[in-house]
Each structure stands twice: as structure tokens, then as C-alpha cells.
Specification:
Helix content is 47%, strand content 14%. It is α/β, with parallel strands linked by helices.
């Protein structure tokens, strides 16, 4: 029986779990044909896509952001759309607008023409170059997967995925994304500059062809089925509470907040961070052939989930501390406290949760 087309089916055999991880590996292998290096970025994009979330991708020009999105679209046989954000871009240029045209009787009628947001995979290139008014046009689409225009609501195609990019260097003529918008991104991923060996491989690859070489291995329906499979992965309460404690630890106003939070964090993460940690951890576990999530899954996803949701203090910024360094310190402090409890109860259930792939 093919479990992938049963949206309410809960996998309960090793064979079915292996099929999920095999499908993930197949998509990843196709994308790797076009992208050199950037393993964490590729995994983050795929996990977010399966989870139904959106990604904020930060990287300097020319590192392959557009190529990555096009490759994902080809591997999944999904329509791809690119929106180049500029200061003069209007909300209607993103969502679409009503136009007036003649019907067969010669009367003027209104017809809605959808904008580039009506695609399964949308690349919002240099999103911080558009005005806040235009940026806000993405809010409803990203959160509700629908667009309201002309007094009517239009549903976006499923699966729907927004990958927004911004340049971390050039800030002239840009509009910083407000917290309400950045919080709607499941992950913030950082595309680093390639190493010399990776640069060599990129040159050799692009000399052969500028076209993406990824081939279709899954459909949108397969992706939605994988999403339903991931939702059914159980979460032990100890792991859930660890994710809750991690997000709570980012709030310096709490009396029991770690020292790192009190000295280096100005504002903590929202409740969406816990949801993102658990949702992403379920998918990460399945890709590694496990039907349970562990502390390792939560810790690994803490960086893309929290780095855009915590605001550092002025002192931390002047000392050139990065969000990732602060998150690493928080995890270390929390695990230091947990190690004591495990030593006090070495045979407790908490110890059994640490399973390596």
C-alpha cells in the first residue's frame, strides 16, 4: 500500500519511515546537482518547505539564492515565481489587482488578475528594498496562504512557500523588516561565501551549463503527504518542555532567565518559535529514519529558528556578539542544568531521549 497519498495515515513501520527519508534524500540529491556546498541551507529550505513555513535567506549577491529556489521548483515540479523588490514596487504588483474589460455584451466588468504571489514557490528577492507598505502585502499571504483584493479573498495554491532574500552588507536605501514580519518566517538561514574548492566546483559546473540540472522526483501532492506524515510524529513531554524552556530562556525579564539572556538579549522570541522548533524537529527526525524527536533535533534547529527572533542588547552588539553565539551560550547553560538532573536520576526517561541517528 502506498501510504504517501493517505493524508491521515500515521506511519507505524520502519519501511514507511524509511520511505519518507528516501524521498527527502531524493529531492536533496537533485538539488545538490545545482548547488555546491551550503548543506545547512539546503536542509533548512527543504524542512521549511515540508513544514509549510517560509524562509528568510541572508547572503551576499551571487552565492546561488535564485538558483537554489529554481532547483527546488524543478525537483518538486512546482511553479516558480520571482519578485524583485524595489522602492517603487506597489502592493498590487505583488498580489494582483482588478482590471476592467469588456464582456461579450460590450459591458464593462471587473476581473481579478493574480500577481506573481500566485505560485507554489515564490522568491522575494531583496525584500528589504521595498517600502513597508509593499512588504506588508506579503503578511497575509505568508501566514494565511490567501490574498484579499477588491473585497474578495483568493486562496493561494498549495503547497505555498516564500523564500525572501536580503543582503547583509548593503543597507543604503533599504527598509528593515519589522518584527511582526520576520516572526512569520519559520527559519532564517545564512548563505555563506563558498570556500576556494567550492568556488572551483561552481566554475566548472556553470561552464558546462547555466541551466538547472535537477530532475523532478516528487510532486506537490507527495510533499503535502510528507507534511501530514510529519505532523503525526509523537512528541514526548520532556522534549516539548525542553523546547519551551529554551524559548522562555530568551526572555531576560523572567526571574529565572539565564545570565546570557539577562546580559545580552533585549527582547526574546515569540510563541511561534516553540511551534517552529517542534514542527521542524519532527521532519528532521524522519529524514534520519527516526519516529521520535530528541534534544539534539531541538538544539540543531534552535539557530535558524531563533536567530531572527531575538534582539540583542546594545552592549552585545558593540562587542560584536552574533545571535548564533548567544543561542549557543543559552543551549550550553540549559544543558548544564539538565546534566545535573540526569546525574541525579540516571535511569530516568530523560536520558533515553538522546538517540543519535
Amino acid at each position: 500500500m502506498d501510504f504517501s497519498h493517505e493524508p491521515n495515515y500515521i506511519p507505524d513501520t520502519a519501511e514507511q519511515i524509511a520511505r519518507f527519508s528516501a524521498r527527502y534524500a531524493a529531492v536533496r540529491a537533485e538539488i545538490r546537482k545545482d548547488i555546491v556546498g551550503q548543506e545547512e541551507v539546503v536542509d533548512g529550505v527543504l524542512i521549511a518547505l515540508i513544514a509549510g513555513g517560509n524562509v528568510l535567506l541572508e547572503g551576499v549577491p551571487g552565492v546561488g539564492k535564485t538558483r537554489l529556489v529554481r532547483s527546488v521548483g524543478k525537483a518538486l515540479s512546482l511553479p516558480f515565481s520571482r519578485i524583485q523588490f524595489t522602492p517603487d514596487l506597489m502592493p498590487a504588483d505583488v498580489t494582483g489587482a482588478n482590471i476592467i474589460e469588456k464582456d461579450e455584451n460590450g459591458r464593462n466588468v471587473q476581473r481579478f488578475v493574480g500577481g506573481p504571489i500566485f505560485a507554489n514557490i515564490v522568491l522575494a528577492d531583496e525584500i528589504n528594498r521595498a517600502t513597508p507598505k509593499t512588504q506588508s502585502a506579503l503578511l497575509e499571504a505568508m501566514q494565511e496562504h490567501r490574498v484579499t483584493a477588491g473585497g474578495r479573498t483568493w486562496l493561494l495554491p498549495e503547497p505555498f512557500f516564500v523564500l525572501a532574500t536580503q543582503n547583509p552588507i548593503e543597507q543604503d536605501g533599504t527598509y528593515a523588516l519589522p518584527e511582526a514580519q520576520t516572526d512569520r518566517f519559520l527559519f532564517k538561514l545564512e548563505m555563506t561565501f563558498p570556500s576556494p574548492e567550492e568556488l572551483r566546483s561552481i566554475v566548472l559546473m556553470t561552464q558546462e551549463t547555466q541551466e538547472e540540472r535537477a530532475e523532478t522526483v516528487l510532486t506537490g501532492e507527495d510533499l503535502l503527504a510528507m507534511r501530514e506524515t510529519a505532523k503525526a510524529v509523537p512528541v514526548l513531554d520532556d522534549v516539548l518542555m525542553y523546547a519551551v524552556r529554551l524559548v522562555t530562556a530568551t526572555h531576560p525579564e523572567n526571574e529565572d532567565a539565564p545570565g546570557t539572556a539577562k546580559s545580552e538579549i533585549r527582547f526574546g522570541a515569540s510563541p511561534r518559535a516553540v511551534q517552529a522548533l517542534i514542527t521542524g524537529a519532527k521532519i528532521r527526525a524522519l529524514t534520519e529514519g527516526r519516529y521520535n524527536i530528541s534534544y539534539d533535533d531541538v538544539n540543531a534547529l534552535a539557530y535558524p529558528v531563533l536567530r531572527h527572533r531575538v534582539k540583542l542588547t546594545y552592549d552585545a552588539v558593540t562587542r560584536r556578539r552574533t545571535p548564533d553565539q548567544v543561542i549557543e551560550a543559552l543551549i550550553a547553560e540549559l544543558n548544564g542544568k539538565k546534566l545535573k538532573s540526569r546525574q541525579a536520576d540516571p535511569d530516568g526517561a530523560e536520558k533515553k531521549l538522546f538517540k543519535r541517528a
